[in-house]
User: Fold these one by one.
Assistant:
Number 1:
Amino acid sequence: MFRLPENMEPAQRFAYLLKKYLEQTASTEEYDAFFAMLLTHEYDALLKEKIGQDYEHAHQLLIDDLPPSTAHTIMKNILDADKSTRQVLRARRRLTSRFWWAAACMAALLAGGAYFFSVLTRTGGVYEPEIPSNSRTVKNNTSGVQQFTLADGSSITLQPGAVIHYPVQFNDSLREVYLEGNALFEVKPDASKPFLVYCRNTVTRVLGTKFNIITNEKEKNVEVAVIYGKVQVYKNKSSKEAEKDVEKSVILTANQKAVYNETAETVTATLVVHPVPIDHSRQHAPDSSAVKAAPAAARVPFVYDQTRLESVFDDIKAVYGIDMEAENTNLYHCLFTGDVSNKDLFGLLRVICLSINASYEINGTKILIKGKGCPP
Amino acid sequence: MKPVYDEKKLLKLLSDDSEYAFQLLYDHYRPRIYKLSVLYLKAPGPAQEAVQDIFLKLWFSRKNLLTDQPLEPWLLTVTKNHLINQLKKVAHQWVTIDEKDLASGEDGLLSLELKESKARLAAIIDTLPAQQKQVFLLAKEDGLTYAQIGARLNLSALTVKTHMARALKSIKQQLLRNNSRFLLILL
């Protein structure tokens, strides 16, 4: 058993124990001694000094940074804490699972036009995203798609007429690109450098995903629809300076979309028009045509025989990743028999609702089933 | 650390509730603060909470920050205070758990010399929750310190100590239930 040197000055001893604590080489007795000294509060100044020194070299520590999903959860917790409940949700305690980076994201920007870019530079907002002086601009003047690769290995496929502005070399902390028109992104995962897509007044933060951005010039809105993975959409502050209203930011997962309304300057989250089964195994982006293809049939057969509605809901949640809610719990007792495996989500819901005398409505990013339900 | 973009501009924006500015600052300073927190708190979970609490403080203080001052010293002070407070909480819990007491004393665990009793002890250990069992075996059979076990299992020494106390308590209860009169030299 290791004995603590007895002849040390208290401060020296504390420094010695602290070092062993930090190196995780302290024996249990040394832990006892270290914590006892800590609780006297006499060594706070010493401890502060050491923390300060360690901060200087913290970037060299052989410790993995937070997984991006956790970093993001924490961010969201903080903003949520302020906005509504003031309750601080604890970050998930331990995230052992590796953050799942989908290999690609898809951004299809319709319309948009040169106006978008000037929005960013002309507003005189307090913050203007710096477009590096060495940035390049690529415009697809052909009638087909045009693909090229960025310095970080991410590739971009431009639809006809699309324009992209990107730096030759990304900066140390962010990968930012500016888009007009339609484009397909295949983003190389890099936890330390988030990938941001600027489109008109919105910023889409790629959290490892594939998604669709559609700008509608007439309706003055921008729509971001997620095919799989996760994105965060928020208003670009440069588009409106010093606003006092609560800035809206939404996190989207598969089959959800955000609509940014330029007139009302709000971001609302809802479901995509054609939810498709989530393909968890997808490792690469399909070509852009697949995105517009009709929704594929569910991979889990929706075939039921006297099945409680509750388990039908579970299947929907599992296949589409969409939360189902019942207006009253009696609905869960309803039984459904039939084969709805060839229907898309809303077709399926229509059949089920007809059979149990209920109706459904889209409530934000959830589907609410309304009706009296069945006796237990 | 070199400031991110124009930090003064960002701080001005932050004071105007810009989440975007906050995000940039968060992404810039977070990795160091997180790593430092892991170094001092010895486990990712508490370090994540530290990051959240520290940046929550930044967000709540956004109206009161001096925009012409660099942010880093402010953040570092908050971080120092937070880490010291957390360490003291850990220290307090550490000294409160007295797991050694559980293994000795009047109705303590008796030494097992008989082979069948050893087998029974093994059976009892087998019923422990996985992590308690793992901690118990690493401590008792491999003779590792709590810190070493913590390093191996990615837990803080405090958590290890807590697991150990729970494991010992439940072993003791089961032995007593079986009216065991054996003294087990556990520690």
Note: The radius of gyration of chain B is 24 Å.
Number 2:
Amino acid sequence: MSDSAFAIVFFAIVGGALRVSTPFMFVALGECLTEKSGRVNLGLEGTLVLGAMTAYAVSYHSGYPWLGVFAAGLSGAVLGAMHGYICKLPKVNDIAVGIAMMLFGTGIAFFFGKAYIQPSAPRLESFSLGAWTGNQQIATALQINPLLLVGIAVAILMAWAFANTKWGLIVRMAGDSAPAATAMGVSVDLVRFLSTTFGGFLAGVGGAFLSLFYPGSWNQGLSSGQGLMAVALVIFARWSPVRCIIAALLFGAAGAIGPALQSVGITQGYYFFNAAPYILTLLIMIASAGSKRAMRDVPGELSITK
Amino acid sequence: MIGSLNLNRRRFLQGTAAAAVAGTAGIRLAQAADVTIGIVYVGPRDDYGWNQAHAVAAKALKGVSGVKVVEEENVPETDACAKTMESMINLDGAKIVLGTSFGYYSPFMVDMAKKYSAVQLRHAAPLWTPKDPKNLGSYFGYLNQAHYVDGVAAGLSTKSNKLGFVAAKPIASVLSNINSFMLGAKSSNPSATVQVIFTGDWSMPVREAEATNALVDAGCDVITCHVDGPKVVIETAEKRGAKTCGHNASQAPLAPKGFITGAEYKWITIYKSYADDLAGGKALPNMVSGGYEADMVANSPFGAGCTPEGKKAAEAAIAGLKAKKPIYTAGLKDNKGKVVMDKTYDNLDPYLDQMNYLLEGVVGSIT
């Protein structure tokens, strides 16, 4: 590989991490919060799709993309609240409800989204961290959307809150031991309801990024499973908000490898390189899951571990 | 005799449906030669791509007097498509049903053809063989000819001489579009090359956007594609300041600055001929296919990205294709150096349908 080809691939990977990672980040953070409270919400794929559609539609009608982002969050919160309420009922399995919510979310998104495939809505603006270099390639690779920064800020805030605030402690307690929380006089159902609702809000915002920034249009194949992948990233990040950010960035970067290598003429084996994110995730999972430390981070109340 | 009174629900529905059809058919006869055409789509009709190309033709068909069009979109390639077709036949009285997605054919359309021998079924991919039912058939267009014209215009509209192609999967029809695009570009600009990126799937919007960005980063200043919905590719390229050529339907509104032209199907030619044959009581052909020479493909109106020389050369190329000027000439090599065209092939030659290589001038690999 020549120097210029190496530079192209390098900047494509950095750019890919910054462009592609944001939806993964928001969904993973939402799921992280939900799972910390002791529930699994597999429905976030549907939330992501509904968020993308809502954001696009609201941005189109109002002309304000940020209003679209907020509306996407609200639509996600509604789906999250539905999941949270249904799971409160006796003998309801949260995984099964999650799958139902996933189909429900994509279904209503497709139903209401039909009218928005053709029109063009105002998109979110971005700014470049690399504009000062005067190099077009670097400037493009370092295009940053404010939502990425919001995501990172939310992650740091969440990590701090889990460790240092009473609210964080209550969420963790509900997730680790429901009897202990009940004994403390905390309503476990309410905590989980609120956590799932806010988790849904975050996932909806992630959807807004898809339709309003990158790839930046609404169509039915938009998510292609990213919401599900992000749920898996939470396990990969071992329920740490900050590690969710790293996992999302890594996943975005790995996803850019396939197209970037083909663009510089390394064209053999593109199916393999396109699978890079998944292979990487698996490898790191295998490498990290072996340690005893890994199990220590699992919330004790999760139905998958109980 | 209780058993015979035990009405099976399905039978009952079939019976009432048949009665309804008989009723409406009577009315139709009174109106003289009214033809109902059913069209089934796999995705939304306005996807700026494959489905839209069919829907544009369906819309034009509605304007033809004596023709009624019934449509259903978002029909998956499962039992659902059989049910849709059945209801078009039984409830809407469709005389011909057009299935526009690859996976509808076998077993669903084959079964439908056997079950409803009085109804014509046609499928938009070259799958029909003489062994299949006679009331079933295939139609398709040689879109590679329009991609060739794209290439001619792109070759004279590029500054970097590097053209980018975002492709879904390395199957023959995709490879033929890539190769034709490159040959068109080379014919107008011998130093042009085409760089291809395969995404591996028909609809992967994020990866399509990544591929477009990667091509622009690698210096390509014209981008085209063969994916299900070209919207993301065209919009991303436009945002990056690259010029674009379209695919399947017109994407001109998506790229007001950089659109050159695009390869479009002209399904209305085929649909209109079906309607005419049915109205005239003629037997429908089982296999209909063609390119520019049969008016079955077209190019989108030239956009702001096309240079005047590019437009002139593209129009000349269209005239050539209409006169059946061959695209694949003797001696062409694949990009590994092996001669793959032992002679000059006619544009519709079946040999070209077996294409499994990228020609010299295309940077990329099919594995």
Note: The mean pLDDT of chain A is 90.
